[in-house]
């Protein structure tokens, strides 16, 4: 069994209105030293090990989990006993 | 300047219908080896360094970024030049 941690972020240059809203809220709460907030997604996927695991994860991200037009993704794979 | 990477996850035992929906979609795409998906949030916050930075981040998470009743969070702090 493998635990895959997937981090999905907006590409640089893509506007992030959700992050901007969070930033404005932090300013309202008097955290004035916050300069920028970017919001992304984080997923933990448990799956049975298989041949070409990285290839499978790339396909899963490209097909469903991320939008490759505007998002980048990275992931780590951990062994779970 | 500091870059804080914040990872927000649902606590163990809290139902994750969004993760379940993603899992079902992956099964429909013939990724049958996927056993569980949990969806969380990932944020990158750029902020000016300050005294008690970790204390400030904890407060920001508890007040706004995470829901401490059902979510856990972890973060890493990086120096940015």
TrEMBL record, chains A, B:
Stored Pfam families: PurS
Tagged with keyword Cytoplasm: yes
A molecular function GO annotation: ATP binding
Function, in words: Part of the phosphoribosylformylglycinamidine synthase complex involved in the purines biosynthetic pathway. Catalyzes the ATP-dependent conversion of formylglycinamide ribonucleotide (FGAR) and glutamine to yield formylglycinamidine ribonucleotide (FGAM) and glutamate. The FGAM synthase complex is composed of three subunits. PurQ produces an ammonia molecule by converting glutamine to glutamate. PurL transfers the ammonia molecule to FGAR to form FGAM in an ATP-dependent manner.
Assembly description: Part of the FGAM synthase complex composed of 1 PurL, 1 PurQ and 2 PurS subunits.
Protein family (similarity comment): Belongs to the PurS family.
The protein's name in its UniProt record: Phosphoribosylformylglycinamidine synthase subunit PurS
Organism whose genome encodes this protein: Halobacillus mangrovi
């Amino acid at each position: 069994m493998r635990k895959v941690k997937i981090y999905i972020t907006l590409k640089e240059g893509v506007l992030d209105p959700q992050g901007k809203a969070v930033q404005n809220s932090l300013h309202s709460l008097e955290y004035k030293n916050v300069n920028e907030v970017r919001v992304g997604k984080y997923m933990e996927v448990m799956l049975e090990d298989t041949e070409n695991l990285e290839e499978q994860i790339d396909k899963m991200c490209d097909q469903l989990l991320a939008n490759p037009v505007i998002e980048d993704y990275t992931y780590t794979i951990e062994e779970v006993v």
